C-alpha cells in the first residue's frame, strides 16, 4: 500500500469478513502493514481496537489472560467481532472486506 488509510479503518476492514479475532491477531497484522514494530506501536493499535469496541463497532466476545506472552505476558486478551453498527460505519466510509 503506497497510501495507507487510517488505522481504525484498516482494523474495521479486517473484521468485515464476519469472523472473530483476538486483539493480538489484528495488532500483529497492522504492525506489519504499517511498519509499527515498537511496543508503543503495538499498544497504540490495541487502543484503537478498544476505541472501536467502546464506540459500538466491535463486540467483545471473550477474554483471557496472556499466559504465554503472545501479546504481553499477564495482559488481558480480548476476542472481538464486528457489530451491525460497525458494518454500517464501514460501509459509510466505503470500506470493503478483505
Write a structural description.
The structure is a single chain. By secondary structure, the protein is an alpha+beta fold. Helices cover 47% and strands 17% of the residues. Strands 1-3-2 form a 3-stranded antiparallel beta sheet. The mean pLDDT is 93.
Topology:
Blueprint: H1 7-15, E1 21-22, H2 23-34, H3 39-54, E2 58-65, E3 76-82, H4 84-92
Antiparallel strand pairs: 1-3, 2-3
Number of domains: 1
Strand order of the largest sheet: 1-3-2
Q: What is the CATH superfamily label? A: Winged helix-like DNA-binding domain superfamily/Winged helix DNA-binding domain
Class, according to the CATH hierarchy? Mainly Alpha
> What does the average pLDDT come to?
93
Q: Structural class, please?
A: alpha+beta
CATH architecture: Orthogonal Bundle
> Distance N terminus to C terminus?
14 Å
> What fold name stands as the CATH topology?
Arc Repressor Mutant, subunit A
Largest sheet: 3 strands, antiparallel
Pick out its properties.
Arc Repressor Mutant, subunit A, 4 helices, 3 strands
Q: Gist?
A:
The protein is 47% helix and 17% strand. With 98 residues, it is an alpha+beta fold. It has a single domain (7-93), classed as Winged helix-like DNA-binding domain superfamily/Winged helix DNA-binding domain (Arc Repressor Mutant, subunit A).
Amino acid at each position: 500500500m503506497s497510501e495507507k488509510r487510517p488505522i481504525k479503518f484498516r482494523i474495521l476492514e479486517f473484521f468485515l469478513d464476519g469472523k472473530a479475532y483476538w486483539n493480538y491477531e489484528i495488532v500483529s497484522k497492522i504492525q506489519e502493514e504499517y511498519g509499527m514494530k515498537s511496543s508503543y506501536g503495538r499498544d497504540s493499535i490495541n487502543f484503537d481496537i478498544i476505541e472501536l469496541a467502546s464506540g459500538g463497532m466491535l463486540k467483545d466476545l471473550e477474554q483471557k489472560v496472556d499466559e504465554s506472552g503472545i501479546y504481553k505476558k499477564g495482559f488481558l486478551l480480548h476476542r472481538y467481532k464486528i457489530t451491525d453498527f460497525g458494518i454500517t460505519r464501514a460501509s459509510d466510509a466505503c470500506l470493503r472486506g478483505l
